[in-house]
Amino acid sequence: MMRDKIEVYTQEQKVKIQSGELASSRSGEIYKFGVREFDPNGLLKSASAIGEISEEKINSQLEASELLGFSGKDQLPRSNQTREWNYINGSFSSLEQLSALTADILEKTKKKIPHFIIQGYGKEIQEEVTYSNSLGACLKKKVKNHELVFDLRRRGSPNICDAYFFFNSFEGFNCEAQLDLTLSLLEAFDKEVEIKPGRHKTLMPPDMTMISKVGESLRADKYNEGSALFSGRLGQNIFGPTVSFKDCRDAVEFGGASPFDYEGEIAKADKTSLIQEGRFIGLISDLRNERKYGVPSTANGFRKYNSQVNLNFASLRLENGKRSVSDILHSQEEVIVPLLAFGGDLTEEGNFSTPIQLAFLVRDGKPVGQIKNLALSTSLDQFFGEDLIEISNTSSAGGGSNPYCLAHVEIQRT
Amino acid sequence: MNIDNLVLNYDFSKLDCFYADLRVEESESTQVGFKNGELEEYAPSQTLGAFLRVYNNGKWLYKFTTDLKHLDDHFAALVSQSKAYKGQCNDLFKTVPTRHEAKIIYPGGNPFSGHLEKKVSICKGYSFLKEKFPLMKELKIYLGDRYQKRLFKSSRGRSYSYDFADCGIFLIFRLKEDDALFMDAFRRWSQDLSDLSKLAEEAEEYIKESHRHLHAPLIKPGKYPVVLNSEVVGVFTHESFGHKSEADSMLGDPQALEEWKMGSKVASEKVSIVDDGGEITNSGYCPFDDEGLETKKTYLIKDGLLSGRLHSLETAYEFGEAPTGNARAIDFQYEPIVRMTNTYIEPGDESPEQIIGSLKDGLYVSDYRHGSGLSTFTIAPTRSYLIKDGKVSDPVKVSVISGDVFQTLMQIEKVGSDFCVYSSIFGGCGKDEQMPLRVADGGPTILVKEMQVG
To answer: How far apart are CA B378 and CA A88, in angstroms?
Structure first.
């Protein structure tokens, strides 16, 4: 009887920011695991829990799940590798250390934008994930992630939130570049400027719904089912020549931290190219899709402790360009920089629209003022195609986040 | 381990602190998923965990753990950490009762436990739909159920226990013909598994209607008068005003409070918005919040005037207002923060037909994928129709409708006499890092004079 197991041990601590001061703190640890058993008839049984439970309870859950008649023959693990990856520099911070780091960035922020009230938090999470199976595989990774969130509201504003800063990295709170851009724009918050609706240059990271829509077509299952936007177009040019999408596994540079998947498959490279210079060249796959569609597994069979394997990305990312955000802004006469564009969505054909809650007009690299009541629309093939001018060389929010894109979009007044 | 005894008999007297409380959550959930007729997902989850709070020397310190055998040690560590601070505590707890209350609906525990075969059978009962509709390229069927039991005890003598159970089915499908794609979903919530097996005819009719949207043209972006059906009104209410009424968003800003005074006109006089956690037949049911208070019906807006805010003990103290019992945490890993429960617009007096009949041109939105709210709220519709000469006309594709929160509330011109609150087991409310929280929302059909449509 083949068995495999995922174990996740997480330690976490967080300091909360309320009205610009460190308020409460929270710490905790949690152990979760999920077991799969493949019987000789091909049935897949599963059991999971948060916290430790007895072997008797595990077996009882496994027997109960037999009723499902879940076929596991396509997902039978084959790995017997043993390996460890440790992405952690230094030890888990104490609450005092985390508080000091968060307070330091908070104080600098308050000095630059004293008219804003800051809520948010600083968080550090350390996670150890182990995959093991009865073939002898034992793959383990240790990662430490840092997260910093500022919800910013102008004093007296009737809004819940006027601006937002989010940063996430495996390398600590090294968010100076991203925070400096946000703060320099917010210094122009109180000055209002107008623009005419129409086609404008904007600088923004691609919306997550757009990335998700691109990603649908890069999955072996959706691609082969014919239900994805770019189904049937493998090998064709679908975007402009500066656009490359890769699935990234390397924690330090790309925020993936997924050298193996939860079927025991080890990724062959730190980055899997899926769209190369505009050309659609690859798909992600797992064991089931390898056996069903003949697309070799790319170690993308992930699952939560209590779920079945789902084909998913480690960290789907647009490849960086050559120049910094500052250089791009200084080279342009006029650019709209949406700092908060939330709630947008796409039609199935890839037409995208979103309101913009906060945008700034930047002339020759200098923020001129805030532009209110805007919405933007574009489409996937235009934003990543003929309307794309340039991609920045840094991520917008640390780690695995996407770089900024300078592109023409349609701007409307709302 | 008998968690009732563990929590309700916990002895706080050995803790040297201003205040402490303990919340333990026991929960079970299952999700079964089919994709194109094949079983693809089975996600059972059993959790038992505790969240500890200590308030001492002016600071709140929290810990979450699955190690319930060493609660004394965890509390001792928090109290020890609190000694590093030198502030003063506020007496936030005067309004919290000091009695025990229990609202246990399922004394036998999880009502959905041991029905795995039935759940699989229900899902399989809808697989025929993929064969019946040739343009359907993908059909996913999810059936979920959950059971939660919460126990709470504080050092001030308050304790409670309550439980809740619900289930639901979600059919997500994708239609494709040539280059045209349309994704839609049929969903139903219940508190009885058997209800979920009787929906085949309704699902068929729903899917037939989806076919009309496959080749629908894209709407020309611009401003339109919009009629929202009651389900969409729910998410509109939640996103446009619900989050605005959560008092913690205004902490530390007396100026904002001054401008957002009770009695201010904030909406059309036809609009009254309520938050009420006491209704057991909705997924926002929350008889007690996670600080020990009983939840209640709170008018946020009454006849267009600002009437109330949602509070935790801390925000109520800071604002000098009465607590409302809205401090909730999604599970044992998080601290309670101000959240909604069941939030809705109260019905008016015009029928939906009268409301649609009043428009020469407009847009009718009858379903949505998701919504969000900051200074601008957004709703991503799935099904939209043009209104022509007082009648619902052809389908049209819309990415998103949005509006300034305050302007839109003032522009609600008609409020329908129909009314429904919509619950869900899939998804929920997100705030800070806590998502999804079990909530419900709804209202009647409404007409908004003008919204941005893109």
So the answer is: 40
Phi, psi of B295 (to 5 degrees): -75, 160
Q: Return the H-helix or E-strand segment holding A317.
A: strand A316-318
**Residues of A in Cβ contact (< 8 Å) with B402:** 343, 355, 375, 414
CA distance A314 to B371: 27
- pLDDT tens track for B409-419: 999 999 999 99
Which pLDDT value is given to residue A251?
A: 62
CB A356 within 8 A of CB B411: no
What does the pLDDT read at residue A70?
A: 81
User: Complex ipTM, two decimals?
Assistant: 0.89
Give the Cα separation of A281 and B107 in Å (integer).
Answer: 57
- Model confidence pTM above 0.95: no
Residue of A nearest to B175 (CA): A227
Type of residue at B228 = L
> Residue B422: CB partners within 8 Å, gap ≥ 6?
B189, B230, B231, B234, B440, B441, B442
CA distance A347 to chain B (A): 6
Which chain B residue lies closest to A228 (C-alpha atoms)?
Answer: B181
With CA atoms as reference, the chain B residue closest to A308 would be B41
When pLDDT is cut at 50, 70 and 90, the band that residue A42 belongs to is confident
B110 touches chain A (CB under 8 A): no
The whole-number pLDDT of residue A298 equals 97
Q: Residue A359 phi/psi, 5° resolution?
A: -140, 150
Q: Please indicate whether, in this complex, the C-beta atoms of A117 and B333 are within 8 angstroms of each other.
A: no
CA distance B61 to chain A (A): 5
Average pLDDT, chain A: 91
Distance from CA of A391 to the nearest CA of B (A): 25
Determine contact, residues A345/B369, Cβ cutoff 8 Å: yes
